[in-house]
Amino acid sequence: MKRIYLLAIIIMSLFSCRNEAYQIQDCDLIFRIAEENDFSKAITDATAQKSEIKFDHVGILIFEEGEPKVLETSSTKGVVFTNFEDFIHNSSAGYVIKRVIYPLPTKRIIQEAKSHLGEAYDWSFLPNNGKMYCSELVYESFVTKDRSKLFETRPMNFKDANGNIPQFWTDLFKRLEIEIPQGIPGTNPNDIAHSPILEEVFQEIPCNKD
After folding, report:
1. How far apart are CA 189 and CA 194, in angstroms?
2. What's the half-sphere exposure (Cβ side, CA atoms, 13 Å) at 151?
3. How far is Cα 149 from Cα 138, in angstroms, rounded to an integer?
4. Does residue 107 register a pLDDT over 80?
5. What pLDDT score was predicted for residue 207?
6. DSSP string, 150-194
7. What 3-state DSSP class applies to 185?
């Protein structure tokens, strides 16, 4: 039987600027706030606005044997289940949880998401190649009863606000020996997070974060 999990932020209030309760639901989306590393910066420079919270990762909350897990794409392990507690422990800059604003075909979405378990991380960020990056997993999994997608793709952008390609992307695609997929339809955590079908249900940001 599924347990009811509440994040009653009493102990967390020592570390977080928020003090409230949140009940986890299947298919909630958890967005990791970007940290200070080259990969995160390359993502947020290309996809996030300066005035907003910047996300570099997203996963899907799913109960497995009564325990909350995050189905996510790991850059080292591919598509895996991660313990919820481990996910938030590794989100040192904080995280935001959002929920679709209307009822979902939850079983179908979970089935779709689990079908990608074991697939490799998609460093090429290309569609339909048997590999997955984080927001692509969300895009492919969130389907309606008629199998249409709930989220939209947009032309991918790998340029920063000045129109330059960060060195991280230049080096990555050179190693892969492929062209940077600028303009090819795709997704990213920041576009997903700002979808009009989502509402924020929980946020934890350390108090020392601006």
Report:
1. 9
2. 26
3. 10
4. yes
5. 67
6. SS--EE-----TTSPPPHHHHHHHHHHTS---TTSEE--HHHHHT
7. strand
Percent of the chain past pLDDT 90, that is, above it, reads 73
- The DSSP bridge partners found for residue 100 are 198
Q: Provide the CA 28 distance to its chain's centre, in angstroms.
A: 11
Q: Are 58 and 132 contacting, i.e. CB atoms less than 8 angstroms apart?
A: no
The arithmetic mean of pLDDT across residues 140-155, rounded, is: 93
CA 40/CA 13 separation, integer angstroms: 26
In one letter, which amino acid is 191?
A: D
Distance CA 135, CA 119 (A): 14
Average pLDDT, the chain: 88
* pLDDT for 13 beyond 80: no
Judge contact between 189 and 98, C-beta under 8 A: no
Does the model's pTM come out above 0.90? no
Rounded to whole angstroms, the Cα distance separating 75 from 38 reads 14
| Strand extents, DSSP E, 1-77 | 29-33, 55-64, 67-74
In contact, 74 and 57? CB cutoff 8 Å? no
Two structure tokens written together for 29: 């989306």
Please give the C-alpha separations between residue 126 and each of 2, 28, 57, 183, in angstroms, as whole numbers. Answer: 36, 25, 17, 11
User: How much is the CA Rg of the chain, to the nearest whole Å?
Assistant: 17
* Model confidence pLDDT, tens digit, residues 49-65: 765 789 999 999 999 99
- pLDDT for the residue numbered 82: 97
